[in-house]
Amino acid sequence: MATPPLFLLLLLLLSFLLLLRPAHSRSTSKITGTTKPAPLENGDPRQQHAPAECDGRRIHIRELPSQFNADLLLACDSSSFPLLDSSSSNFCASLSDHGLGPRTHNRSRSWYRTDSHRGLEPLFHRRMLEYPCLVADPSLADAVFLPYYSSLDALPFLYSPDQFNSSFLHGLSLYYFLTDKDNSPHVWSRHRGLDHFLVLAGPAWDFSQAPSADPVLFGTSFLTTPELSNLTVLTLESRPSPWQEHAVPYPTSFHPATLARLDAWLSRARSSRRPNLALFVGGGGGGGPNVRGSIRAECENRTDLCEVVNCSGGSCAHDPIRFMRPMLRSDFCLQPPGDTPTRRSTFDGILAGCVPVFFEELGARAQYGWHLPRGEYDRFSVFIPKEDVVFNGVRILEVLEAIPRDEVRRMRERVLELAPGVMYRRQGSSDGLRARKDAFDLAVEGALRRIRRRVRSIAEPELLLEEDDDDL
Ligand SMILES: *[C@@H]1O[C@H](CO)[C@@H](O)[C@H](O)[C@H]1NC(C)=O
Ligand SMILES: *[C@@H]1O[C@H](CO)[C@@H](O)[C@H](O)[C@H]1NC(C)=O
Ligand SMILES: *[C@@H]1O[C@H](CO)[C@@H](O)[C@H](O)[C@H]1NC(C)=O
Ligand SMILES: *[C@@H]1O[C@H](CO)[C@@H](O)[C@H](O)[C@H]1NC(C)=O
Ligand SMILES: *[C@@H]1O[C@H](CO)[C@@H](O)[C@H](O)[C@H]1NC(C)=O
Question: Which DSSP helix (H) or strand (E) runs through 322?
Fold first, then answer.
């Protein structure tokens, strides 16, 4: 009588294991390894029967004419836009390979010369094609993704003087397309656009000029146009009181395709020797009193504790080797505001296990709640108000030196735990890596939470007064 129970146990174990198989490996394995996006995003039969674990997370990718995406990848050079800064000179090339850009060198497998801004639009589009819960029928979808490369479409309004005065037009042709009587306008009107989302790969400030502004200043009106106000927009930086937008991490240069490569990098960062206390990677600091100037002055005084990588003139933009090695040998990475409060360098530093030092809340805590737990900043970062540094004589290096060594170690450990969630893995990654949520996965989850609440708010308007959807 000993055999039946054992047999039953084995059977139970087997069915348990089968249940545990990650759902996405079933539904996405067929497109693993493809290098080009499938052209017919919604005509694909494998998208018709998204399984039950997709309840509440089904997404329809809206098919758009190529003028809204692919065509924009062809006209993005400084020859087209003379006012684009010099760091953008090989801008088109940096958007190749679905936004990853070229590899840093021939033998590199996980490192790319990725554009820290606009690369996110093609990258996000390509990754969306691998999303396990796509549906071809928009009426079954919980959300509709618009593969519109909106910051690329903004270039003429930002960098061609003859089009400055038309910057209120940014995005309107998309709206007219979606509501055109010949283009299934019910997809948009079903929830008045509240279930639609897209990526706008830049700081919200560049896209929030009042449509009626006179004179017209730098920036478009994408985020202030009433027609587009129901969209959920993923930006790299949000305004202090955002409505449509939510910030997601800047793309870094690191896009591993397997769990082994991710883990190899993280263990390198974990065991790296860090003789340097503080690092600043960036430019600026001239002009009147400002925190970048204070950082430079302190670092010049104490080269034994502080290193500066001079990135003036965009010299580091597509060259991660220049700053990743210094980040690996530093305990703290100083992340002061520049033209705007946030910076891509914050995410490079997190990948390197370099504890971020912020100088204002808008630099990260007020931004990336879907990716970095808002209530935990003390555990993985240091905050020194910029006013204290510039006007009250607080010395950054003294503050950092005073932090006990095992506290620094604990912070670094926490930073490295958060790192997988702020990097964008390569498209077509291994199943093992897909089982870890990356910046894309967390961004989609956040967008779905927000859209769920907004759609419900049509019937229950008081929902809109609820807390933000950040605190998980
Ligand atoms: C890298 O590969 C390209 C194209 O295959 C080749 O032209 C180039 O010489 C290679 N560079 C190095 C440093 O090997
Ligand atoms: C844009 O509008 C301003 C007035 O608001 C005008 O002075 C300027 O000439 C216009 N620029 C172009 C290129 O039309
Ligand atoms: C946005 O949603 C609101 C509230 O549901 C609705 O009144 C409005 O008409 C919508 N705007 C557009 C442009 O569809
Ligand atoms: C630089 O060092 C000098 C001499 O030790 C000191 O007086 C000065 O305050 C320091 N300046 C900064 C910005 O740390
Ligand atoms: C940084 O580099 C720029 C351009 O290469 C140079 O003009 C500037 O003086 C440098 N700044 C510092 C502080 O070394």
Answer: helix 321-328
Q: How confident is the model at residue 102 (pLDDT cuts 50, 70, 90)?
A: very high
Q: Quick one: which ligand is closest to 227's CA? A: 3
Grouping H, G, I as helix, E, B as strand and the rest as coil, residue 342 is coil
Residue type, 450: R
Residue for token pair 């883990």: 263
DSSP state of 313: G
Beta strands in 294-364 (DSSP E): 306-310, 330-335, 355-358
* pTM score, whole prediction: 0.88
* Nearest-10 crossing angle of helices 405-418, 259-271: 170
Q: Which of 162, 165, 167, 209 to mutate to test the pocket of ligand 2 (most atoms within 8 A of CB)?
A: 165
Contacts 24+ apart (CB under 8 A), 76-84: 76/118, 76/152, 76/155, 80/155, 81/155, 81/156, 81/158, 81/159, 81/160, 82/159, 82/160, 83/158, 83/159, 83/160, 83/161, 84/155, 84/159
Domain boundaries, the chain: 32-251+439-465, 259-420
Whether 313 is in the pocket of ligand 5, judged by its Cβ within 6 Å, is yes
Report whether residue 310 contacts ligand 5, using a CB cutoff of 6 Å. yes
323-351 in b/e burial notation, b at 16+ Cβ within 10 A? Answer: bbebbbebbbbbbbbbeebbbbbbbbbbb
Averaged pLDDT of the chain: 88
Q: What does the alpha-carbon distance between residue 354 and residue 277 come to, in Å, rounded to a whole number?
A: 10
For 45-69, the pLDDT digits (tens) are: 445 555 789 999 999 999 999 999 9
Ligand 3-lining residues (CB < 6 angstroms): 192-194, 227, 230, 458
Could you give the CA distance from residue 374 to residue 243 in angstroms, rounded to a whole number?
19
Torsion angle of C-alpha atoms 145, 146, 147, 150, degrees rounded to 10: -130
The DSSP symbol for 181 reads T
CATH 3.20.20.60 fits 259-420, yes or no: no
Rounded-to-integer distance, Cα 455 and Cα 448, Å: 10
For the purposes of burial, counting CB atoms within 10 Å of the CB of 70, is it exposed (0-12), middle (13-18) or buried (19 or more)? middle
In a mutational test of the pocket of ligand 3, which residue from 230, 233, 456, 463 has the highest number of ligand atoms less than 8 Å from its CB? 230
Question: Cis peptide leading into 215, omega within 30 of 0?
Answer: yes
Residue nearest to atom 8 of ligand 2 (CA): 165
201: which residues sit within 8 A by CB, 6+ positions away?
Answer: 117, 118, 119, 120, 121, 150, 151, 235, 236
Q: Which atom of ligand 4 approaches the CA of 297 most closely?
A: 13
**One-letter amino acid identity for 253?**
S
